[in-house]
Amino acid sequence: MLAVIVSVCTASAQGPAKRDELRDKTRKQLASIADALDGVLGYVVIDLESGERFERLASETFPLASTIKLAILYELFKQAEEGRLKLDDVRPLERRHVVAGDGVLVELSAPAMPLRDYATLMVVLSDNTATNLLIDAVGMENVTRRMGSLGIKGLQLRRKMIDLEAARRGDENTGSPADLARLLTIIYRSEGLTRESSDAIVAILRKAKPSALRDGVPADVPVANKTGTLDGVQADAGIVYLPGRPYIFVATSTFLKSNAAGEAAIRDASRAAFDYFDRIAKSSDYGRIIR
């Protein structure tokens, strides 16, 4: 009987051992993508079912570009829950909010719309004018304070969009890949928010937009994400709703010689992460694909 028990235990360990090897190959593949980039790439990838992680420079501070808008979006919906503002309140756009860069509001003469719609423009078109209006609506210091209350002290909103003077002073919007991953996990799990609010946030983030993260995932798999771009900086952060294996993917890059190269690295890393989780989701412990 003892011999049989030992034999069964040995056999059951073979499957997980093979999966460990697959995991190690994926880890090396992600590291190779980062090593090949002419710049610095950090990332955090988290299996939302098991907690398994792939990380590189996870706790290092990066300029976040427009991925900081995830924190503004969270604060907007949280303040709506607290009764401090109403998402359907119509706000006229004042010229002091208007800045260049991404978006459409800069081209309009005198628009007025609900805060909810400004939030949609902030995410889908990365509209910087909409973002600046929302920063005034919620209060810049409140965004950073809220992140701190969630245990994400490294996520710092220090300036409005396209404020070059603030950037030259060092007042950059910063955080780590782990900070963004934690915020996305909070949104996914409705921590500190009602399910209605978190679902509404995810619905905005899921709206179609150009994205290296999305390019690495098949079109039929939903992705809720926000991209970010500055000169020499490329970032993408989101939740991938892979059936049976949802996961967080965050990649931040800086000191890039080419933004296109940074975007390509994030796309390759996204594809590598998806290939791993998709295989795990479809396979038994022994690696047989079971559809």
Folded structure, characterized:
This protein is 46% helix and 16% strand. With 291 residues, the protein is α+β, with helices and mostly antiparallel strands. The chain has a single domain, classed as DD-peptidase/beta-lactamase superfamily (Beta-lactamase, 3-Layer(aba) Sandwich), CATH 3.40.710.10. It has a five-stranded antiparallel sheet, with helices on both faces. Strands 3-6 form a two-stranded antiparallel ribbon. Strand 8 (233-240) and strand 9 (247-254) form a beta hairpin. The model is unreliable at 1-13 (pLDDT under 50).
Briefly characterize the structure.
With 291 residues, this protein is an alpha+beta fold. It has helices at 2-36, 69-81, 115-124, 128-138, 140-149, 164-168, 177-188, 195-205, 212-215, 259-282, and strands at residues 40-47, 53-56, 62-63, 90-92, 112-114, 174-175, 223-230, 233-240, 247-254. The protein is built from 10 helices and 9 strands.
